[in-house]
Design goal:
This protein is an alpha+beta fold. The chain starts with a helix and ends in a 5-residue tail after the last strand. The chain folds into 2 domains: 33 residues; 50 residues, no CATH class. It is elongated. Strands 3-1-2-4 form a 4-stranded mixed β-sheet. It is 43% helix and 18% strand. Bound molecules: zinc ion.
């Protein structure tokens, strides 16, 4: 699992490095596989770009690192503070 993630990240990196206009769409697609932070609480509705986001400071539960796609599947939306 971890090696798959690393290869996805590396592929994304090279797509960005080539930086042709056609690669911009690839870059946007890769962005959905980025890791985000969620507070593992029932009342929590957002996912975060940064672990240090002040929206996470109030979290009394475990802070989990999951992919953005997983967060979306859990019904989370982007935090308005760190996005
Ligand atoms: Zn946030």
């Amino acid at each position: 699992m971890k090696s798959i993630l690393i290869s996805i990240l590396l592929t994304g990196f090279f797509a960005i490095a080539q930086n042709n206009s056609a690669d911009i769409q690839i870059k946007v697609k890769r962005a959905t596989t980025q890791m985000v932070y969620v507070c593992d609480s029932k009342g929590s509705v957002a996912y975060h770009n940064s672990k240090n986001c002040r929206g996470l400071q109030a979290c009394k539960h475990e802070i989990k690192t999951i992919s953005e796609a997983e967060a979306t599947q859990l019904g989370r939306r982007r935090c308005q503070i760190c996005y």
